[in-house]
Amino acid sequence: MSQMNSSMNFLPEDYVEKRQASRAAVVFIGLLLLVVGGLVGAYLFTQHHMKAVFEQRDRVNAAYEDAAKQIAAAEALEKQEEEMVRKAEITTTLMERVERSVLLKELATLSPKDAAAPELRGGVPRIGGPPMGYSGYTIGGLMVLIEAVGEVAQGIVDRVWSIGDLGGRSAGGATD
Prior knowledge:
Radius of gyration: 54 Å
Distance between the termini: 163 Å
Shape: rod-shaped
Strand content: under 5%
Number of domains: 2
Structural class: mainly alpha
Mean pLDDT: 77
Helix content: over 70%
Largest sheet: none
């Protein structure tokens, strides 16, 4: 009889099949929830550990932005410096190396006493031709000026040689 009891089933077949299907559905839903929970947990774990990496990336990006601003400021300063150097060079070329009054004083000092001083006109020369009706220097006035400049140049040469003679040297450079 014991064999009979084990093979006997008093439950209806459709009930047994439904019960097995519901058990399988519960197991599959449980496994699905377990996998989805694992994926969500892995994502949250990764985000938590990557938070420090993201913060470091943000700090590095901010440092790069600051460096870019400093580079731009340095380039602007270099351009400003180049402009200032260019203007300084122009100003230097436009400045007189020796003032005109000093030159005129030397010209008067070194010119012979009987030489007539030519009329010198100061100021900035005009670019382009002279205006209509302007006579300027005459040929005679220019010749006097050229002679005066020659005499001044000769006076300078004589003065330099005389300074050399004071040191015990003659014009030839030999000692007496």
